[in-house]
Amino acid sequence: MTIKRLDHISVVVDDLTAAIAFFKALGMTLEGEMPIEGAWVDRVNALENIRVDIVMMRTPDGHGRLELTKFHNPPLIRIEPAIAPPNAPGLRSVMFAVDSVDDTVARLRSHGAELVGEVVQYEDKYRLCYMRGPAGIIVALAEELF
C-alpha cells in the first residue's frame, strides 16, 4: 500500500479568525492551534523565515481534518484572478456531507460565503451546491436524499 489515509487539506487564509468562524458554522470543531517557525518549515516549503499560525479543524465524525494557515512572514502572494472560476486548474473544491443544504447555506452566508451557482437536486439522490468560502476556496455541500 502506498498511503495510509488522507490526513488533512491545508488552506492558506488571510483572516484566520473569520476562517475559524466559517468552518465552525459549517459544523467543524477546533482541534488545536499553534505557531510554526524554524529551519525545518523553511526547508520543507523552500521559503525563508516562515512564521505562521496554524489551526486544525475536525469534522464531527473525527476522520476529516482541515488545516487553516495564516502567514505572518513571508507576506501573502496575491494570485490573479484572486477568485478563480470553477474551471481553473488546481484544487477544485472541498466537499462536505451535510444534514441540510438550506440550513448550511444560511449559516455560511452569515459568515460571508456566497453561492457559486444554485442549489440543485441530482435525481432523487442529492441536493448539491458550491459556495465560495475563506480565501476563495470552493466548499461543496451535499445533502443525501435517500
- From the alpha-carbon coordinates, what is the Rg to the nearest angstrom? 16 Å
Structural class, by secondary structure, is: alpha+beta
- The N- to C-terminal Cα distance equals 33 Å
Mean pLDDT: 92
Q: pLDDT below 50 for ≥5 consecutive residues: which ranges?
A: none
CATH superfamily of the largest domain: 2,3-Dihydroxybiphenyl 1,2-Dioxygenase, domain 1
CATH fold group of the largest domain: 2,3-Dihydroxybiphenyl 1,2-Dioxygenase, domain 1
In terms of DSSP E residues, the strand content is: 35-45%
Output the keywords:
single chain; 146 residues; alpha+beta; 2,3-Dihydroxybiphenyl 1,2-Dioxygenase, domain 1; five-stranded mixed β-sheet; four-stranded mixed β-sheet; 9 strands; globular
What does this structure look like?
The chain has 146 residues and is an alpha+beta fold. It contains 3 helices and 9 strands. Helix content is 18%, strand content 36%. It has 2 domains: 9-73, 2,3-Dihydroxybiphenyl 1,2-Dioxygenase, domain 1 (Roll); 94-144, 2,3-Dihydroxybiphenyl 1,2-Dioxygenase, domain 1. The chain is globular. β3 and β4 form a beta hairpin. The mean pLDDT is 92. The N and C termini lie far apart (33 Å). The relative contact order is 0.19. Strands 5, 6, 7, 8 and 9 form a 5-stranded mixed β-sheet that branches.
